[in-house]
Amino acid sequence: MPEFPVEIVNPERILRVAELEDARLDEYLRLSEAHLRMRTDVENGLYIAESTKVVQRAINAGHVPRSFLLAEKHLGQLVEEFNRFPEAPIFIGEDSQLEDLVGFHLHRGAMAAMNRPDPLDLDQLLTTSSRVAILEDIADHTNLGAIIRSASGLGIDAVLLTPKCVDPWYRRSARVSMGTVFDLPWVRLESWPEDVARIRSHGYKILAMELTEDAVPLNEVQLAKGEKVAMILGNEGRGVTDEALAAVDATVIIPMHRQVDSLNVGAASAIAFWHLCSSPR
Length: 281
Description:
The protein is built from 10 helices and 12 strands. With 281 residues, the chain is α/β, with parallel strands linked by helices. The protein folds into 2 domains: 11-115, CATH 3.30.1330.30; 122-278, SPOUT methyltransferase, trefoil knot domain (Alpha/beta knot).
């Protein structure tokens, strides 16, 4: 057996991809085909954490790995995590072998197949929060990851996802968020836009960022101390749906120049979050 970092407890659990046909490797197959993975991964209680930093943040958030997958040269980067979960196998291989398995070049150190924790309780989350982002049908994983990173860094307490919004624990979303998706509480709504009434019942003012005739400039939105607010950000193409707009208290816009209508939802969300979280709570 080749020499491995001596700090790894029980090196026998290190298994070479080329030498072993193991059903547990099926969890890493076709990772580049998001449309084939998302539904089945959720149903199987699985998500894939990609990159050493994301794996570490997921584990530090209390998530439990089923297995690890990485190039042999990166073994020394996750010794502490390997030893915390001695039952999780560690699959290693050459870069070309891993690329054949997952469907793309694995250039960020490591992956781990993770168990999905139980979902959080919506009412409890709304009770303990005061600044909430509602993401309506965001379709792009990169956008979702960027929004969540901004939400986490700028002080949003929680994120609510509509039923059609993509999965924040899909590997690309988690990677773009730099792992902040594991620290920021989120809940997937079950009924939309009917859940607006449920959110409002917890004392929230409901805003939507959308270009409408009666939209208010974001910088004119003033929140009183103790006031709760939830901001809806819509789909990249169509924006916030008419059904949701009919249920909000007000729509807001970011004042623009040079005949630019709007910003990408990721950029717009960061501006909105900064403004809302700068108000006294």
